[in-house]
Design goal:
about 50% helix, two-stranded antiparallel sheet, mainly alpha, about 10% strand, 3 helices, single chain, elongated
Amino acid sequence: MTGELSNCKECGCLFIAKHDNNLCFECNSEQQKKLSAVRQYLRNHPGQTAAEISEAMDLNLRFILDLIRQGTLVAS
C-alpha cells in the first residue's frame, strides 16, 4: 500500500499519508490517547460542555470542537 508524502498538520514533519489521515504516526497516537481520556472523562462527568472539558483536562478547545465536528465525539 502506497501513500503520498505529506506534512503532519500537527507537528509539520514529513510522512507518508495513507487514506485521509493528515497526522503522522506519533501525533495520531497522541490524538487517540487524548480522545480515549476525553471519553473516560465524559463517562465520569456527563453533560459537560466543550469548554468545560477543555478547561478540566487542559486540552485545546479547538481539539475538542474538531472531535465533535468530525463525529468522533458525540453528545448523548
